[in-house]
Specification:
By secondary structure, the protein is an alpha/beta fold. The chain is built from ten helices and twelve strands. Strands 1, 2, 3, 4, 5, 6, 7, 8, 9, 10, 11 and 12 form a twelve-stranded mixed β-sheet that branches.
Length: about 300
Amino acid sequence: MPINIPKSLPAGELLRQEKIFVMEEDRAKTQQIRPLNILVVNLMPEKEKTELQLLRLLGNTPLQVNVTFLNTATYRSKNVSKNHLDLFYKTFDDIKNRRFDGMIITGAPVEKMEFEAVGYWQEITDIMDWAKENVTSSLYICWGAQAALHYHYGIGKYELPQKCSGVYSHVITDLTVDLVRGFSDIYVAPHSRHTSVSIDEVRQHPYLNLLSYSDDAGVFIVMSKDTRDIMVTGHLEYDATTLSDEYFRDIEKDPAVELPKNYFPNDDPTQIPLNTWRAHSHLLFSNWLNYYVYQETPYEWDYIDEYVEYHI
């Protein structure tokens, strides 16, 4: 089934070239089907790249998906045009009276800052509070994952001696959990962050399950025991060249920046890196959409039953 997007969204043509089934809004309205409504809070600086990465994964399942992009009202990104934001993005005030089947909060380039010092922190916490009653399942990525762990579960972050950048091996703690159904016993995934969270704090938390971790990169996938919050500290959505783009950007500012680990062939940055995590990227997103959004969301939100909250 297709992913439904605005007619003129730039990512649409690229998705069509990749044979992702894209349906424009006008045609989607003519179909007698209840699509999933997914809210994407896009905090990444290069928003159009992130749009393409997430739409590619959301559009590769049998489910029809409507995507609404949300931008913070308290901060305007400098790396995307105002026209793009005005055409394709909404603010929290625009959508706070709606309900969504799923929500994604992306990473953000503010991880070295204390959470409360981030200019849009209050807005993000308002969104996370609103999601408790108005979203079936929330997927938090990188800084978004750390923000959710901090705000909902009281787990702080700490700064690493050097940036965690590269492609790392991970293990699964419980292969019977639907979110990791189909995952290999060992798989790789990209990380790109300056901070981390304590694996012991996650393991000992009464309302959290640690589903996947790396001996080198630490905590990776965490899920709340009510399954409504899923935190992923890395970037399975990244393209093959995203870490490369970040490396060459960073090295212009600091020539001493280290190469991403296990990424460039033969550790040679002149060689083109391969995407060795693509299959698990699609598995994670399709499992999330199927088992935690589609299977759990009410057909009509007006009839949703009360649920038990595990947030602290």
